[in-house]
């Protein structure tokens, strides 16, 4: 599977269909082949006709599906006898056992790609170069002549390295099939297989065993890798290395110690090998160790568990459940902690502390002038329209000077100040500090 955004791999769920019900693969092995490519192996020993992939995979680039490798290809094949025919120009064709594992599935016998016996007790044996866990056998029958009978009543037996039977499959149908798909449910590796006991046709003096191709699909047993499964996994992952590369599994979802994947992510961490920090939008920095979704609600956002929608103006806190204080300027406040710029007469982070003035003569004109700060609105221009700054920070530097910071992340070419600012004395505008 290839994704643009590697963070989204941890949201992927692989399900298969059995008996019209989808269920998640219980035993998965993940290997990261490169920055954007993940190899996912489902080791549940089941047969399925359809798969379902769930998750945040809008950036899915490519998907490749494999049922395993054909471990029978070019392996050592023998049979009890070899049928032969003489063609025009005295060219003799011998239908040897190796023709059944040459990769050619052509069922037209006249093309010369099938094996065939000529004795009273025919048998075919395939010996593998290593031990393999096989989950499906496929037999290709002759289709140009006699396929209504040929291969009917066959028996397939597989054995392990100690010659102990692993699979024993008998065909009980009178009518033969052009292709046999034989699914097996075993976790035991096999070393060889044999096919025999075919039915005698009305036009043959004895039973003939014709195999146009034999395929066996499976994988290396745990602890081995390479195409012939002859290499042992490294000591750091003796039973779980990648079966193609031999590398130790480098991916754990929700665990921090590949390849064992037994140590659960610490608090505030999630994802592949626990390298991601839970989002600041998660309340208490608490998130699911695999998906990163917020588990205790949002902080400053309103849509748990995603927590991507900021609070509406005038609300703040966990899941945006608290209104800004009544004494906040313009009824707005910080969406996370509720802090705000206060209207005249109040101080404190939440503007909940009234100002106590000393008794005595006062200059009402001074109070009136500074009170005008609360009526100021800062607007910026984007796409030919002015809009009010949504995130403002106000700091009173002295009696008559206010520092106003607009924290909306926008580019603008002009600003507009609204309010009762007829007594504006000075205005200084700064874009950012030079941090070089």
Automatic annotation (TrEMBL):
GO molecular function, one term: scavenger receptor activity
Gene3D superfamilies assigned: Galactose-binding domain-like (2.60.120.260), Tie2 ligand-binding domain superfamily (2.170.300.10)
InterPro entries: EGF (IPR000742), Galactose-bd-like_sf (IPR008979), MEGF10/SREC1/2-like (IPR042635)
Protein keywords: Disulfide bond, EGF-like domain
Domain EGF-like: 316-352
N-terminal signal peptide: none
Paired cysteines (S-S): 342-351
Keyword Disulfide bond recorded: yes
Record keyword Disulfide bond present: yes
Lineage top rank: taxon: Eukaryota
PANTHER family: EGF-LIKE DOMAIN-CONTAINING PROTEIN, SCAVENGER RECEPTOR CLASS F
Protein name in the entry: Uncharacterized protein LOC106052305
């Amino acid at each position: 599977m290839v994704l643009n955004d590697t963070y989204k791999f941890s949201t992927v769920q692989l399900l298969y269909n059995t008996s019209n019900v989808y269920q998640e693969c219980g035993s998965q092995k993940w290997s990261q082949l490169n920055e954007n490519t993940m190899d996912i192996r489902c080791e549940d020993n089941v047969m399925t006709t359809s798969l379902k992939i769930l998750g945040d995979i809008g950036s899915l680039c490519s998907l490749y599906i494999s049922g395993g490798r054909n471990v029978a290809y070019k392996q050592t094949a023998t049979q009890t006898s070899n049928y032969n025919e003489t063609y025009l120009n005295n060219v003799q064709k011998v239908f040897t056992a190796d023709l059944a594992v040459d990769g050619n599935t052509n069922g037209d016998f006249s093309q010369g790609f099938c094996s065939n016996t000529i004795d009273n007790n025919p048998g075919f044996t395939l010996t593998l170069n290593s031990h393999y866990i096989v989950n499906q056998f496929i037999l290709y029958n002759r289709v140009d002549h006699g396929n209504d009978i040929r291969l009917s009543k066959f028996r397939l037996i597989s054995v392990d390295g100690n010659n102990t039977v692993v699979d024993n499959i008998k065909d009980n149908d009178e009518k033969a099939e052009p292709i046999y798909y034989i699914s097996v449910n075993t976790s035991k590796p096999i070393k060889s297989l044999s096919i025999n006991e075919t039915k005698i046709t009305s036009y043959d003096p004895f039973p003939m065993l014709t195999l146009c191709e034999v395929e066996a699909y499976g994988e290396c047993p745990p602890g081995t890798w390479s195409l012939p499964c002859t290499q042992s996994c490294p000591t750091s992952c003796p039973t779980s290395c990648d079966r193609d590369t031999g590398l130790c599994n480098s991916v754990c979802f929700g665990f921090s110690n590949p390849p064992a994947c037994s140590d659960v992510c610490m608090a505030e961490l999630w994802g592949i090998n626990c390298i991601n920090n839970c989002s600041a939008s998660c309340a208490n920095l608490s998130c699911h160790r695999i998906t990163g979704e917020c588990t205790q609600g949002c902080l400053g956002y309103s849509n748990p568990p995603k927590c991507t929608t900021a609070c509406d103006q005038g609300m703040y806190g966990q899941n945006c459940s608290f209104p800004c204080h009544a004494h906040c300027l313009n009824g707005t406040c910080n969406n996370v902690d509720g802090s705000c710029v206060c209207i005249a007469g109040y101080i404190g982070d939440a503007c909940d502390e009234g100002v106590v003035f000393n008794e005595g003569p006062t200059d009402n004109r001074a109070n009136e002038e500074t009170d005008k700060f609360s009526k100021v609105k800062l607007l910026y221009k984007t796409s030919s329209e002015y809009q009010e700054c949504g995130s403002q920070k106000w700091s009173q530097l002295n009696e008559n000077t206010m520092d106003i910071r607009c924290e909306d992340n926008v580019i603008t070419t002009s600003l507009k100040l609204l309010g009762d600012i007829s007594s504006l004395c000075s205005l200084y505008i700064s874009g950012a500090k030079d941090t070089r």
